[in-house]
Every structure is written in C-alpha cells, then in structure tokens.
C-alpha cells in the first residue's frame, strides 16, 4: 500500500467523538451470550466511531472498499467463525488459499487496529474491528444501520485446508448453498438475505466462467440460457477471450455502488451475475423471498439487520478462548 495513502487514512480517521450505544443483544449460544453492545463502553468508548471514520476515509479514496470489507467478513466467518483468522498472513493460512487470493480491504482493518493500539492498547480484537468495518461499509453505501454485539476474541488457528470444506462456491445449487448455511446455524431465509450482499462489490470473470464457453473464433458464447440475452452479451464482451485475469464485473449492473434491493430486481430479470445468485429464483423455497425483497427495500433492510447479526456471531471466541492480537496479520508471540 502507498505510504501516503496509509498516512491519509490514519490521520483522517483520528476524528473521535463520544459514541452512544443504542442496543443490547440477547444471544442464545454460550459464547455469543458473552457478547454485548456495550462491551467497550469503559475500556475503549470511541471504538465504533474510530472504525467508522477509518472505513469512511478509505472508501472516499477507493470506492471498492465497502464491497471488499463485506466479502472479507463472509470469508472470515464461514471458516473458523468470526475470529479474524482470514487476516493472518503466511504460508498455509486461510489467506493463502486460492479461494481467498482475490480478497481485499485488509489494510483498512489494519489501519483501524493501529489507531486502537495507540488509544486502547491490547483491548479491541481484530475480529470486532472486521465486523464493525463490514457493518459500516453497508451503511455508508446506503444500507441500514445495524447494532452489533461486541467482545469477540481473535483466533489462533488459520489453515488453508479449512477453506474449501466451508466456503460457499459460486457454482453451488440451492441445496448445496442451504447445506453450507445450515451447518453454520443460518436458515434458508438467511441465505437469501445475505446473498443480497452482492448488491455491492464486484467479481472476477472466472467467478462465472462456467456460464460461457469460447467459440472457435475466440468469442465468448453463453451456455447458461437462464441469463437475459442483453446482459449475457455484455458479460461476454467484458470477459472476452484474452481479457486480463484481473478483469472485474460489478455484481449489480444497475446500482453497483448502492446497498439497495436492486439485486433482487436483477435476479427476477435474469440478470444475476453468479450461478449461485441465479439459482435463487429457480427454487420455490427461495424465490418467494426474492420476490418479497424486490418489492420492498424496507423488508430487505429489516431482514438484513437480523441476518447480519446472526452471521457476525458464528462460532465466536470469547472469555479465555483466543487472544487480542497486537497485529491483525499475525498471532501474538
């Protein structure tokens, strides 16, 4: 990262004001029950404001940050739980797995952590920072404000071998998606709600390459007939043979920078980018919810707030489990 950019984020993030906590969550699982919205009320009262300022400053300089932070949280919570294990660098870690090579936004979490280590040393976990950053990314792009419980501790284990058995693949069917979500304590409705994260962000062309094939003259031809023809043509031109491996496509072709319910409108118009998006309208168990959200953004936002909290407390570590890292990219010691 450019040192000047890093310095700009750090300085502009140091705008601290008192934060008023607005909700206390009552959680059912033993470890999650130790989380609280006022966990840092006395030990680091400005933590939420500082993280928000960091995300806001980074997003002003790079509009792709909100989508990256949201994706980063998903890739963290679905593996070892929400314990910041995806942030750890090194050979054989989650971060080194090919499925995580395209993740970004790490430096935003690192920047917030550096500031917090100055103000509240050894107090705020990287896991909590990541949850707050993803939460703020949604609100900053027009989504709902969500009160999240805090008090997570950072994990000590980060293994690439845990990624594939737990991560959701873009080629999954509804049954495969449901199985993966259910194994994490999430429902079918949570699946549809949290898939709405694709209303922001972007994907590499290879994330949906199975929906096309290369013809003899080098052009890309849709093999997935469920795609709307005009949209399929647009994708084929963007991801034509010879396109850069880093070529990206907006997840939402209509309002890519806004967190809204357009994702669901797109699905019903057969303009879902990923196979795992499109299948949500072909299965009666998920289509009804897609239709409901396409008609009411308020309904989507209300459901998002609930499902996001459920995502954020998957297999959390509290009490004596894990640690509070000094640096998000490595365990202590």
UniProtKB/TrEMBL annotation:
SUPFAM superfamilies: Heme-dependent peroxidases
Domain (Plant heme peroxidase family profile) ranges: 34-332
Residues reported in the UniProt entry to bind Ca(2+) 1: 76, 81, 83, 85, 94
Species this protein is from: Musa acuminata subsp. malaccensis
Function summary: Removal of H(2)O(2), oxidation of toxic reductants, biosynthesis and degradation of lignin, suberization, auxin catabolism, response to environmental stresses such as wounding, pathogen attack and oxidative stress. These functions might be dependent on each isozyme/isoform in each plant tissue.
Annotated S-S bridges: 44-120, 77-82, 126-328, 205-239
Record: residues binding Ca(2+) 2: 199, 252, 255, 260
Superkingdom: Eukaryota
GO biological process, one term: response to stress
Reactions performed catalytically: 2 a phenolic donor + H2O2 = 2 a phenolic radical donor + 2 H2O
Assigned GO CC terms: extracellular region; plant-type cell wall
The EC number(s) this enzyme carries: 1.11.1.7
Free-text remark on how the cofactor is bound: Binds 1 heme b (iron(II)-protoporphyrin IX) group per subunit.
Binding site for heme b: 198
Location(s), subcellular: Secreted
Cofactor: heme b; Ca(2+)
Family stated for the protein in its record: Belongs to the peroxidase family. Classical plant (class III) peroxidase subfamily.
Active site: 75
PROSITE patterns to which the protein is assigned, alphabetical: PEROXIDASE_1, PEROXIDASE_4
Alphabetical keyword list: Calcium, Disulfide bond, Heme, Hydrogen peroxide, Iron, Metal-binding, Oxidoreductase, Peroxidase, Pyrrolidone carboxylic acid, Secreted
Site (Transition state stabilizer): 71
Protein name as catalogued: Peroxidase
Molecular function GO labels: heme binding; lactoperoxidase activity; metal ion binding; peroxidase activity
């Amino acid at each position: 990262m450019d040192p000047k950019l890093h310095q700009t984020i750090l300085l502009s993030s140091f705008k601290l004001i008192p934060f008023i906590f607005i909700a206390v969550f009552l959680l059912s699982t033993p470890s999650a029950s130790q989380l609280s919205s006022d966990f840092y009320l006395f030990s680091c009262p400005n933590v939420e404001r500082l993280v928000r300022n960091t995300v806001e400053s980074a997003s002003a300089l790079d509009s792709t940050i909100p989508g990256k932070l949201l994706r980063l949280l998903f890739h963290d919570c679905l593996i070892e739980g929400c314990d910041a294990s995806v942030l750890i660098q090194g050979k054989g870690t989650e971060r080194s797995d090919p499925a995580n090579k395209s993740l970004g936004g790490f430096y935003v979490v690192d920047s917030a952590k550096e500031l917090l280590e100055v103000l509240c040393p050894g107090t705020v976990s990287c896991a909590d920072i990541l949850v707050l950053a993803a939460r703020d990314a949604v609100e900053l792009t027009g989504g709902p404000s969500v009160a999240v419980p805090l008090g997570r501790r950072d994990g000590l284990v980060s293994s690439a071998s845990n990624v594939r058995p737990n991560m959701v693949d873009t080629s999954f069917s509804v049954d495969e998606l449901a199985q993966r979500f259910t194994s994490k304590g999430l429902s079918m409705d949570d699946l549809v709600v949290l898939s709405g994260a694709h209303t922001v962000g972007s994907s590499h062309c290879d994330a949906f390459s199975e929906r096309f094939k290369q013809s003899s003259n080098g052009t890309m031809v849709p093999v997935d007939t469920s795609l709307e023809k005009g949209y399929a043509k647009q994708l084929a031109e963007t991801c034509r043979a010879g396109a850069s491996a880093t070529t990206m496509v907006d997840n939402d072709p209509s309002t890519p920078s806004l967190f809204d319910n357009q994702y669901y409108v797109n699905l019903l118009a057969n303009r879902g980018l990923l196979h795992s998006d499109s299948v949500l309208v072909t299965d009666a168990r998920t289509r009804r919810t897609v239709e409901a959200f396409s008609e009411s953004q308020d309904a989507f936002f209300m459901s998002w707030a609930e499902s996001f909290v459920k995502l954020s407390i998957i297999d959390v570590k509290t009490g004596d489990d894990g640690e509070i890292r000094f640096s998000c990219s490595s365990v202590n010691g």
